Amino acid sequence: MSMLTPPGMGGKYRITGNKHPRMRGPRRRGRLVVVVVASVAVLGVGGWGTLQLIDVFTGGGRKASAAGNGTDCAPRTKASASPAAKALPEPRTITVNVFNATTRGGLAKKTADELKKRGFKIGDVGNATKQYDKKVKGTGVLLGPAAALDTSLPVLGTQLPEAERRTEAARKGAAVDLVIGDGFKELAKKTDADRALTKLARPEPAPTPKKGC
């Protein structure tokens, strides 16, 4: 074996010029690097795909972000605009007939006097007709024409909230009746009646549902 033969080659190769024989070791290392890089790329793509699947099945991504920001589609309540005040008649424009359907004397006049102090106009005062005499078990009955159902009767009703309200289609005129029943004790306190009148004329706005999405 020549002194110029690289050790370990067993004389198989001989160097005859300035070029050295190529070794196979570097080529194998290059292949190994390529394999490692390719494996990492495959694992990265697979991991990214797995994350996408997790987002799909767990509601991640934009939905999760929306939940984190406290945004949802639950119905919300929002007060509607305050309705315009009803055109209700004032007590001084309402004529009230007061009738006593009980066995207690003097109730009609006493009640009529109190209503007059509160601004109502008083019409007839006396005992109830046979139709109602001793037949009203509650606090009283408020009677009026059909047109009074949403006008005069609600205003008079603020003075005796428990009274029953009735209309008579054939009734003429604008006057209304207050028929005192067995359960009557007294009219509502003036402060409570005034508060009820104010609320009746200017009702509070009712909340309306509103979706947040």
Summarize the structure.
The chain has five helices and seven strands, in the order ααββαββαββαβ. The chain has helices spanning about 25-60, 60-70, 105-115, 150-155, 190-200, and strands at about 75-80, 95-100, 120-125, 140-145, 165-170, 175-180, 205-210.
What does this structure look like?
This protein has 213 residues and is of the alpha/beta class. It has a domain at 91-201: Alpha-Beta Plaits, CATH 3.30.70. It is 33% helix and 18% strand. It has helices at 25-58, 62-68, 107-117, 152-157, 190-201, and strands at 75-79, 95-100, 121-127, 140-145, 164-168, 176-180, 207-211. Strands 3-2-6-4-5 form a 5-stranded mixed beta sheet. β2, α3 and β3 form a beta-alpha-beta unit. Residues 63-68 and 79-83 have low confidence and may be disordered.
Strand order of the largest sheet: 3-2-6-4-5
Q: Which CATH architecture of the domain at 91-201 would you pick?
A: 2-Layer Sandwich
Averaged pLDDT, please? Answer: 77
Rg value: 48 Å
Number of helices: 5
Question: What is the beta-strand fraction?
Answer: 15-25%
Quickly name the level 1 CATH class of the domain at 91-201: Alpha Beta
Helix percentage: 25-40%
